[in-house]
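Review session, final week

We close the course with one last complete record, chosen because it touches almost every idea we covered. It is Succinate dehydrogenase/fumarate reductase iron-sulfur subunit, a protein from Aeromicrobium ginsengisoli with 253 residues. Go through it on your own first, then we will talk.
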Amino acid sequence: MGNQEHFRVWRGDDETGDFVDYDVEVNEGEVVLDIIHRIQATQAPDLAVRWNCKAGKCGSCSAEINGRPRLLCMTRMSTLPPGEPIVVTPMRTFPVIRDLVTDVSFNYEKAREVRAFVPPEGVAPGDYRMQQVDVERSQEFRKCIECFLCQDTCHVLRDHEENKPAFAGPRFLMRVAELDMHPLDAAAEQGLNRKEAAQDEHGLGFCNITKCCSEVCPEHIKITDNALIPLKERVVDLKFDPLIRRKKRARRA
Ligand code: SF4
Ligand code: SF4
Ligand code: FES
């Protein structure tokens, strides 16, 4: 027989809802998702929660625990303050479908807005060659499990619904940065300047490098330090580096 803990879980949809209290058994080694499942099994069979892998790899159990964006399956009960109520709410930045399940389609729309990798002309797939350092740089970004916790926590989106059309959010600015760093991406040859797109189409200027996105990333990706700041630096170079400006002017002439 484990301990009894007090859970406050948000129940409702996008229109209406409230907190519901549950006293529930907690055993050694359990994570918050185990407790949500126990509440479903014993007290609230209609409690909605999204999950798939229970291993921190599918990115579907994102929610907020005591106000902090977290994966339910990777948050051990032993890391939460004992004897205090545990408050579980859906991600605040996205519309609620029901209870802990949010509609994250905003993120899929933003993903579609980023132009895909453009293969280099005259090089067959399989003949691509890159320096190991370039492979490693993008490998970090490729660890993303699309949990959207970074999108949820970023204050540009979280507190300002009106910014959503103009701001892609950290996950997709990171994707733009990855493509811009890619030595084989031939977007420029097709007239697409990824740095200009980052600034003008994906809202890079909204980001004021608070690093909150990196702090909540379950894959520990250094989103701000390794993607957003370098991208901002390259955008600044594009605008203010006299050599780049001269080259651009010469190209226009
Ligand atoms: S660093 Fe930028 S993208 Fe990340 S949370 Fe802060 S404002 Fe948002
Ligand atoms: S960058 Fe990290 S926090 Fe953001 S969606 Fe990917 S895994 Fe989640
Ligand atoms: S259930 Fe897959 S990440 Fe939590």
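Two points worth writing down before the exam:
Residues 55 and 73 are 7 Å apart (CA to CA).
The mean pLDDT is 94.
Good luck, everyone.
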